[in-house]
Amino acid sequence: MKAFLVGGTASGVGKTTVTLALLAALRERGLRVQPFKAGPDFIDPGHHEAVCGVASHTVDGWMIPAEENRRLFWRTARRRDVAVVEGMMGLFDGVVGGSDEGSSAAVAKQLGLPVVLVVDAGGAVRSAAATLRGFRDFDPDVRLAGVVFNRVGGRDHMADLVAASAPLGIPVLGGLPWQPEATVPERHLGLVTADEAPWSRERVRRLSELARAHVDVGGLLAATEVPEPRDVPPEPAPCPTRVRVAVARDAAFCFYYRDNMERLARAGGELVAFSPLTDATLPAGTGLVYLGGGYPEVHAARLAGNAAGRAAVREFAAAGGAIYAECGGLMYLAEGLRTLDGSLHPMCGVVPLAVRMEPRLTALRYVEASIDLGDGQALRARGHEFHHSALEGRPPPGLDTVATLTDARGRSLGREGYRVGRTLASYVHLHFASCPELPERLLEEAAR
User: Which of 122, 141, 197, 398 lies 20 to 30 angstroms, CA to CA, from 188?
Assistant: First the structure.
């Protein structure tokens, strides 16, 4: 099959634009395309899905064990003609400077994928070729299938880039001109979501035209053939349904790893969506509420205004219902959420904390958690933190915490994972592939 990773020389060079344009062009050719996202991003996969009509999956060089990455990738990709992985940050940027751990390059090597490198050529010609040479030589175990230049200034600029790159022996697959309409708007946590910047058929068609006009798609396919492994284990048989899981799904809560949902379903969860923005009640028969991340701060007034919905969550928790909340979910379960304008919006009041928004990032890091769910056996799971909010004041004395956190360098981050009754809320987005027992334990807790 055909498979490749779209890497970049740095963040912001146009990986997402190039990836989306290629997804659109490949799909237009009638190929069955499977998108993936390397790294902990929640937003890019939504744009992948909107453009090519297929759910995008996460692979990661630090959160997910190498064998799980390989298993997830090939079980998903082998049913398709082309697999496209959008990388994160710069190609070799990972958790520490001395190794490629956690980088897009590490993912490409784990999966045996060639790399299509995106180089921002705005204001550069031979300097862009020098950059390309450095990436070619930095790690001989990473195979560059070719380069796509971005922000090309015109025909002469592109001809000069091709001439400057010719001695390097790396195929120049194309160069995209700067087209603002092909980019996705941004805000404080990255790109806006696909639901907020909808991809109409006309917009997708223009993306496809951009790739067809400026990228040698046929040459790309010829350079990215990879053998499918024969030893990928089959998907495990799902367990019988035992718990109805109410998953918060709306404009305020939309950050979930696709694999987490699938693992919950295979462990026996019946996933049912509800909206904290609009629903006055939880779905009938709910045994576990899953509150993911998203943008509760953007929709704080509407969340506060849905008093019936907040009361339903609060009463469910008080009656002994199980709740699992991550980041934005923690903010929603707090007593209140203070936005940047100083307004304090009442939230569910399940966890005795208040949260305030900050103008700058308060956390951006990989995290490992050692979690004690009450039986003396610690579960170790990995995840990611990325937020602009912080607790307002200290947690009250006696608030139970169940997790000891360390960062990717092994440094202690203290205690977190707030437990109130059968509610567990944390700023960390855990990836269940790092701890397959976790979804099973959550459903067991809910079933009790």
Answer: 122
